[in-house]
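Bumping with the actual sequence this time:
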Amino acid sequence: MRHEEVPGHPGVVTARVSEAAGPARALASVLDDEERARAARFRFPADADRHRVAHVLLRLVLGRHVGEPPGRLVLLGRPCAGCGGPRAFPASRPSRRWSFPVSRPPGP
């Protein structure tokens, strides 16, 4: 899947959903059951694509940094410190010392 790292910011990547949606669908097997189910619940395909691209990229980048296959990573939802909402920042198991904000601005 084509993505670019932001210079000077290790682990920060960007991708165009319009270009990455197809590859993300092909790589959906790396997502866990909850991530796949959430993508299936979106009303609009573009929203499902944004979700899938963001979560596949998270797993690809994180897996590369920790030396684990993306599909073997176990990500746990942690509540948002601001609003208490669920799964604001995925955290890795067994260590909960890292969290990984995922931003999905609207657009292609």
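The tokens above came from a reply further down the thread. The first helix runs from residue 17 to 26.
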